[in-house]
Design brief:
By secondary structure, the protein is mostly helical. It has helices spanning 17-35, 42-48, 53-59, 63-79, 90-105, 108-120, 125-137, 142-152, 161-182, 190-206. It folds into two domains: 15-61, Homeodomain-like (Arc Repressor Mutant, subunit A); 78-206, Tetracycline Repressor, domain 2 (Orthogonal Bundle). Helix 1 (17-35) crosses helix 4 (63-79), helix 4 (63-79) runs antiparallel to helix 5 and helix 8 runs antiparallel to helix 9.
């Protein structure tokens, strides 16, 4: 007898749970941004996702749980394993990982989600708590894992790869994200993000000391 039974086949037309979750998070982000957290309606989320309210509550038992999943989806590319993490060329790998993260996190909708958290944190403390929980529980990023692997192989001298990863993210995301949150700059173009990422990686790998003649 096998140790476990294979999963039951999906009914014709049935949607996998992962796809349901993604669709609900996408619909929820639109409703949260339109109405704010406190006024957002689970009925409206279900309607926007073309699902029943019963299905919504089967996946997310509360609005707080749905919002936390929406925040996690906003940050997903920072934590996702990608082919770039295993790219043999280190400079290309680090640059690509930073471009992927920045392109997502600096996008208009993601910035709007962060503004929502900041703007409603006093009236709805659950928003700040959910965001903090996601940030502290999502584990190491693909960038951090690659830096750690390089350090363990002796190719980089990094006593704390997690700190190095945060520094690299900060070099690319920090100033642009703050100015976007304040509404004093436009969303950077793909070319601008690529240039920022390349400059950060070059500075990180090569240092800023001028070579002696």
């Amino acid at each position: 007898m096998p140790d476990s039974l294979p999963p039951a086949p999906l009914r014709r037309g049935a949607m996998p749970d992962g796809e349901r979750r993604q669709r609900l998070c996408e619909a929820a982000s639109g409703i949260f941004l339109r109405d704010g957290y406190a006024q957002a309606s689970m009925d409206d989320v279900a309607r926007a996702a073309s699902m029943s309210k019963r299905t919504l509550y089967q996946i997310f038992p509360s609005k707080a749980a749905l919002f936390e999943a929406t925040i996690a989806a906003t940050l997903a590319p920072v934590a996702l394993d990608t082919d770039l993490e295993r790219e043999p060329d280190l400079r290309r790998a680090l640059t690509g990982l930073l471009i992927a993260a920045a392109s997502h996190i600096l996008a208009e909708r993601q910035i709007a989600i962060y503004r929502l958290v900041i703007g409603e944190r006093h009236g709805s403390p659950v928003l700040a708590e959910a965001t903090h929980r996601v940030l502290t529980s999502r584990g190491s990023s693909a960038l951090e894992r690659r830096l750690r692997a390089e350090a363990m192989a002796g190719r980089l001298q990094l006593p704390r790869p997690e700190v190095a990863a945060r520094m690299l993210y900060g070099m690319v995301l920090g100033s642009a994200q703050i100015r976007l949150l304040l509404g004093v700059r436009r969303t950077p173009s793909a070319e601008e993000i690529a240039a920022l990422a390349a400059e950060a990686v070059n500075l990180f790998l090569d240092g800023a000391v001028a070579a002696r003649a």
